[in-house]
Design a protein that fits this description.
single chain; 110 residues; mainly alpha; two-stranded parallel sheet; 5 helices; 2 strands
């Protein structure tokens, strides 16, 4: 999460993290939900935490900062205007744009 928090702060975007109890629920959604193939459980866990964060912080967007979260949470019921940001999709799209633009890709970043 530090990677996202730092980048958002540099861009002037305030970042809020799940509180410790919410983090337990997120981890349950990951371990007992997505990784166990129980997507409805994961969706409930992630949705509950997302709703709590939106209510508490009036969030306009939620960064789904773990690769498992977007697999289960594609919308936030009751909050259609909250943007769910999928970093994996954004990074893969940027990589594809670069590759197809002729920029190529290498492990050294060049």
């Amino acid at each position: 999460l530090g990677l996202y928090t730092s980048a958002l702060e540099v861009a002037g975007i305030q970042c809020h993290l799940p509180d410790p109890g919410e983090q337990v629920v997120v981890m349950r959604g990951i371990q007992e939900g997505v990784k166990a193939g129980k997507i409805p459980l994961a969706r409930d866990c992630f949705g509950t935490v997302g709703e709590q964060m939106v209510q508490r912080h009036a969030c306009e967007a939620l960064v789904l900062a773990c690769t498992e979260i977007p697999l289960a949470l594609t919308s936030l019921p009751g909050y259609p205007d909250v943007n769910l940001v999928n970093p994996t999709a954004i990074l893969s799209a940027a990589l594809a744009r670069r590759a197809y633009a002729g920029g190529g890709w290498s492990m050294s970043g060049g």
